[in-house]
Write a structure and sequence with these properties.
By secondary structure, the chain is α/β, with parallel strands linked by helices. 28% of the residues lie in helices and 23% in strands. The strands form 3 sheets. Strands 5-2-6-7-1-8 form a 6-stranded parallel β-sheet, sandwiched between helices. The chain has a 3-stranded antiparallel β-sheet with strand order 10-9-11. Strands 3-4 form a two-stranded antiparallel ribbon. The longest helix is centred in the middle third of the chain and has 14 residues, at 93-106. The ligand Cc1cn([C@H]2C[C@H](O)[C@@H](COP(=O)(O)O)O2)c(=O)[nH]c1=O binds at residues 11-12, 15-16, 41, 115, 118-119, 155, 157, 169-173, 184.
């Protein structure tokens, strides 16, 4: 029985790497995948991992019908044995419904990969729909770590290393960007709540201690 599986986690926890591994293992056995992505950092029509691997993919545009895309593809006599959708948090809820229909009506496995929550720790609409519809939700096991060493569960957006909480939900970026630009950092919940990034924690640690006032 085909499945809709949502592989989720924070940024930088290996989702795209796993997507590329699933693709590699299946194509090594002669299977053909339909690979969707949206707003990958490597550019339009690319699925890339920080380990340096990259593959071509179909860039999902606003309003694209993913079910119709598969039906068109198959009716032209072309093959698709399974579907991968990376950066699935950026898909519209209707597009997630279309992926569920691909599973149910076309009997293809769909593997979706994405972050669940944004920089304000609110669900992305696409991820919310995946949680609602997926046969299985798998949290990636290679956890990213907060600067304090705890498991990172949240994504922070930073400007100059300082966490920000205002701005558009979608801003493509990386966890290793220049500190002057918008970047991202993964944090544990405690430090996300306190808005304490690696840079602000370092600055606090370097600040001179307040000297005790002598009474004598
Ligand atoms: N130089 C490196 N050596 C080993 N592993 C690395 C290196 N750079 C990145 N990684 C691994 O790749 C992961 C990020 O993979 P990626 O698939 O790009 O993440 P995601 O798609 O979840 O944002 C990191 O968490 C780390 O485990
Ligand atoms: C938290 C958050 C992230 N994004 C963007 C930043 C990246 O381009 C992607 C996540 O990619 P990854 O492969 O999982 O690292 O999402 C965003 O637009 N808005 C956010 O709140």
């Amino acid at each position: 029985m085909s499945e809709l599986v949502f592989f989720c986690g924070t940024m930088d926890c290996g989702k795209s790497t796993l997507a590329l591994q699933i693709e590699h293992n299946r194509s090594a056995r002669g299977l053909v995948g339909m690979i969707f992505t949206r707003n990958d950092r490597a550019g339009e029509g690319k699925l890339s991992s920080r380990l340096g691997l990259v593959t071509d993919a179909v860039e999902v545009e606003d309003g694209a019908d993913l079910y119709a895309h598969l039906v068109d593809h198959l009716s032209q006599g072309r093959r698709a044995d399974y579907v991968i959708a990376d950066e699935a948090q950026f898909l519209a809820p209707e597009q997630i419904d279309q992926l569920a229909r691909v599973v149910d009506d076309l009997d293809l496995d769909v593997y979706a990969f994405g972050i669940t929550t944004d920089f304000r720790s609110k669900l992305f609409p696409g991820s919310q729909r995946l949680v609602e519809l997926a046969d299985r939700v798998e949290v990636l096991q290679v956890e990213a770590l907060c600067w304090c060493g705890a498991r990172a569960t949240h994504n922070a957006r930073t400007v100059g290393g300082v966490m920000v909480v205002e701005g558009a939900q979608v801003v493509v970026g990386d966890v290793t960007g220049s500190t002057d630009e918008i970047g991202y950092e993964v944090l544990c919940r405690r430090h996300h709540r306190r808005r304490m990034t690696a840079a602000t924690a370092r600055a606090a640690a370097l600040a001179p201690d307040v000297l005790p006032v002598s009474s004598g």
